[in-house]
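Q: How would the structure tokens look for this protein?
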Amino acid sequence: MIAFDTLEAEARSRQAQRTAWQDGDGPLPALYVSHGAPPLFEDEPWMRQLLDWADDLPTPRGILIVSAHWEAAPLSLSAVAPANVVYDFGGFDPRYYRMRYDTPAAEELAALVHKVVPIPVHQHASRGLDHGAWVPLKVMYPNADIPVLQLSLPTNDPRHLVQLGRHLQALREHGILVIGSGFMTHGLPYLTPEMFFGNQIPGWSQEFDAWAAEALSRNDLDELAAFRCNAPGLPFAHPTVEHFTPLFVTLGSADGAIATPIEGYAFGLSKRSLQVA
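A: Here is the predicted structure in token form.
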């Protein structure tokens, strides 16, 4: 039995007891979530970290999430009507392909996004939520009663993504939770069985994570944006960069104090996740 089966009832109860965001409340923070994959549902401590984090936030009116797993230009939004989740992974137990996350229709959220983003945003009629969106949200908000839309990652240029985040800032004042979803390190081709199954942490994962943590502690956007030149271990920590760059949407969406609700490692990869006021 997967750990989520034993935790789900508690998670649903905890979500139902949270306080909802109300008009007059301050803007919600923006998040960067290291999202994991189906093995997240086997990791009870990690799921409890996500649940505790969601407990500390007002329940949003809607969620807009930018995932590493939907790179598309021009800028695009997922379907506003309930759509099937995307099972964009392979080789896992069949039970993961039966999981659902059927959120409410999101027409009002879509209208808000179109209002605040000053460039055309293509609306997909059938594009569902990929695992970078629905896997962490199924743990944090298991009742699936919050409208969710996914916004594509249109580029990996940090400056352009920060600017995109700036456009999204106004959503937070409407009770919308803006999330960039990736993984602080994502060197899957370089994981060994000792790392994946034995909790051995590779040096490149530790070095990249320490560099990012230090830059984030100074809120040093210039240093982070220069990651291709400055980050240690980059070719191994991010052989492709799409799991790091959603961070810049988050950092553009909010520019206040940075908190780190989740840190540590899973499968040798840094699961560092951030909240920006």
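The longest helix spans residues 158-172.

The longest strand covers residues 62-71.

Upvote if useful.
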